[in-house]
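Human:
Class, as today's exercise, you are to examine the entry below, and be ready to discuss the fold:
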Amino acid sequence: MDSNGSRLLEDLVHWSGELSELTRNARRSEPTSTVAFRRGHAVAAAEKVTVGLASPGQLVDWAQAVHFEDQVDVEEGHESLLTQFLVEVSTPELFEPVTREVCQRWLRVLQASLASDPETAGHY
């Protein structure tokens, strides 16, 4: 089993490190297991933009990389919300430009979803 490939994909989903290196490593890896993309990952990514740790363009690049990885599965029960987040953020030319305000709006939606889920309330 290629645990290193899965770890590299986990790093991308968690946006743990420099984005260009994460995307390059994820493209070169061949994970043998899937990695889950959860609401907490989307919250953390949107927060990076709202607090100034990442640019909106970086969020677009990250969302594209996550969205188009075959080995990334969306959190069960929240596929619609998370797929909508990835599609809208990864294709601003089809929806609206990604801005700090767009990220704040997504944060409210995602945090409300987490808060309404007894299993994740307070644990994202």
